[in-house]
Design a protein that fits this description.
Blueprint lengths: L3 E6 L5 H14 L4 E6 L9 E3 L5 E3 L1 E3 L5 H11 L4 E5 L6 H14 L3 E6 L9 H9 L2 E4 L12 E4 L21 E4 L1 H7 L6
Parallel strand pairs: 1-7, 1-8, 2-5, 2-6, 6-7
Antiparallel strand pairs: 3-4, 9-10
Helix pairs in contact: 2-3, 3-4
């Protein structure tokens, strides 16, 4: 039975690694997968999903106006697909999450989405909010704060290493820009912790 899955976490938790491993498992069993990632995140190269541990795979890309249901229909017309994998799912629009839900319901293809839950200000991304509302199953990919507690928040640093409290929700970056923290240390980093 096909389902819409949302695997979420903070930065540097290994979401792309888990995605690539799951896709590999399908392919190793002789089943085809369809990988998609956001078109404006080209840190690993255009149309590529890559993990910090060195594994990667090519992928089709989506933009904010891409009809994902139509894209999957076109791909299914070319060959069978056992599962659709979406990296950087936080960048999906609400409409695109509904398109993925229709893919599961109408085309009977499982869809596994991997992305951030909240931004550097502690606010849900639109794609993540829609996935939290519509996903059949949600799984947290866990990582830890420097104190050893589970990291649930992310802080964005400026060039001087200071935590930012304002700015655009989307700014592509990696370890040099973002740090995953527990809520207490996130509050401390953004100056919201009373002594």
């Amino acid at each position: 039975m096909a389902k819409l899955y949302f695997h979420y976490s903070t930065m540097n938790a290994g979401k792309s690694t888990v995605l690539l491993q799951a896709s590999h498992n399908y392919r190793e069993s002789g089943m085809q997968t369809y990988l998609l990632t956001a078109n404006f995140d080209d840190r690993a190269g255009a149309g590529k999903i890559a993990s910090r541990i060195g594994i990667s795979s090519t992928a089709d890309t989506f933009g904010t106006d891409t009809d994902l249901f139509a894209r999957v229909e076109i791909r299914l017309a070319q060959s069978s697909v056992a599962c659709v994998f979406i990296d950087e799912a936080q960048f999906l629009s609400e409409d695109q999450v509904w398109q993925l839900a229709r893919t599961v319901d109408d085309l009977k293809v499982p869809v596994m989405c991997y992305g951030l839950r909240v931004d550097f200000q502690g606010k849900l991304f639109p794609g993540s909010a829609a996935l939290l509302a519509l996903a059949d199953e949600m799984r947290e990919v866990r990582t830890i704060c420097h104190c050893g507690k589970k990291a649930t928040m992310v802080v964005r640093k400026d060039d001087a290493g200071t935590a930012q409290r304002e700015g655009d929700q989307v700014q592509i970056g990696g370890n040099d820009t973002y740090i995953s923290l527990c809520r207490r240390h996130w509050r401390e980093a953004v100056g919201d912790l009373s002594k």
